[in-house]
Every structure is written in C-alpha cells, then in structure tokens.
Specification:
145 residues; 6-stranded mixed β-sheet; 30% strand; Maf protein; single chain; alpha/beta
Length: 145
C-alpha cells in the first residue's frame, strides 16, 4: 500500500493525479520540537513525519512532505487565524521570500529525500486586497498564509 503522510488537501489532490489508490495517514509529531536552521527545517520535518508512519507500516511505501516559508531568516508557519494571516501577508507584501519544501519517500528498501527551494516575489497589494484574499481563500493551513 502507498501511504501519504499528510493532512494537506493539496498534496492529496496532486498525488491522485499520479496514483489511483493510496491511503492517507496523518503523523502525530510535534513540529515545534525541531529546533533547526530554517534551510533544514522542511526536510527534517518531512523525515520525522515519514519515519513516524513507516515505523507502523514496515512493508508499505510512504511519502511525507513539509513546506515552510522563510522571510528575513525567520520561519513563517501556518497562521491558524485570519488576523495572523493578514499580519503575515502584510509582512511579505512587496518583498521577496523563500519557500522550502522537503520530501521523503520510504519504501522498497530505500529512502529518497529532496528539498526544493523557490524564491518568491510578492507584489505590492493594498490592505483591502490582502483582507479580500484571506476572506476568500482562508489560507490558515498554509505556511506563510
């Protein structure tokens, strides 16, 4: 069985395009315990998630991922509230930031890890545009909103 170690609806949607059948299992890890440099954090969190699921599913294939936003060498996590999302987006407004995604595949006797780092330039938006975006798309479960 192939297991996606994630609660992300976007990751589920993407994987469905490649695999007709897979299981979702959300790992129970405390991401706040990982005190690492921002550039290493996404991959290490993905590995922690993958290992947590793999420990219970020795013969299965596991894919675990994590994405973080880095701005001014500071990690911006998931905002969880509209107010925090607006605050994050105002901080990023008109500036460049980094989005790091870490991935681990565990299965068939091997592990494959990758980190993808992308520079993103955020166009300048008005406060009203930011509020409208947050109200419409509710980016509360997305790193950096």
């Amino acid at each position: 069985m192939f297991i996606l170690a994630s609660s992300s609806p976007r990751r589920k949607e993407l994987l469905k395009k490649l695999l007709p059948s897979f299981q979702i299992e959300v790992p129970n890890i405390d991401e706040s315990l990982l005190d690492l440099p921002p550039k290493d954090l996404a991959l290490e969190e993905a590995k922690a998630k993958g290992y947590a699921i793999a420990s219970k599913h020795k013969d299965d294939e596991i894919l675990a991922c994590d994405t973080i936003v880095i701005f001014n060498n500071k990690v911006l996590g998931k905002p969880h509230t509209k107010e925090k999302a607006i605050e994050m987006l105002e901080e990023l407004n008109g500036k460049e930031h980094i989005v790091n995604s870490g991935y681990i595949y565990i299965g068939k006797g091997k592990e494959i890890t990758r980190t993808v780092s992308t520079k993103v330039y955020f166009n300048s938006l008005s406060k009203e545009q930011i509020i409208e975006y947050v109200d419409k798309f509710l980016p509360l479960d997305k790193a950096g909103a």
